[in-house]
Amino acid sequence: xxxxxxxxxxxxxxxxxxxxxxxxxxxxxxxxxxxxxxxxxxxxxxxxxxxxxxxxxxxxxxxxxxxxxxxxxxxxxxxxxxxxxxxxxxxxxxxxxxxxxxxxxxxxxxxxxxxxxxxxxxxxxxxxxxxxxxxxxxxxxxxxxxxxxxxxxxxxxxxxxxxxxxxxxxxxxxxxxxxxxxxxxxxxxxxxxxxxxxxxxxxxxxxxxxxxxxxxxxxxxxxxxxxxxxxxxxxxxxxxxxxxxxxxxxxxxxx
Length: 255
Description:
20% of the residues lie in helices and 34% in strands.
């Protein structure tokens, strides 16, 4: 855990769609390898999408299938605070978004932004207490829909949440799988909430993250507000291209 006496003025964040613990095309169960890769990044806050809260053991996973929720397995002893927002529920289990944090999570809420019964989506809003600081850190883990009309509704709900529940003076990180291959979110979120995307600011475009083996689409994002500085963190292609259908992205944030 961070030093409780030293002010926290910088942090590292990672976001990854874990594809329910399976590799591209569901060929292998890779959650143990994914846990090792996430640890290597040494992020302070991790945003997860498509992570299992509960599920009956999958036949192909063998002895590697964890006994408890997958987000707890990924957190292990590294991230002692975590929150889970259950989005999709089915006969054999459920999955959703999760946030793992090295800082205390003082409160959290999962907001249902589903635009149809066939595609359940949520926004997981966490408020964290940072050592040595009076302000709070707000994080929102995002997984938006596949249809443009649904994403427009969900972005509007995200903007509403930020306006209503996040003080403009407190740092805010919004990260996850936006499924925004048409790149609508940048202008919408900057206009409605003052959010800036880390990779767009650094390189003029968001990172290509899908499909993992040959990324073409810019689906995964890290947006920030009320921070002093932000920069992308380069991650190696291997082993990430074998651990999901999305590649992760990471950033260094100065508060």
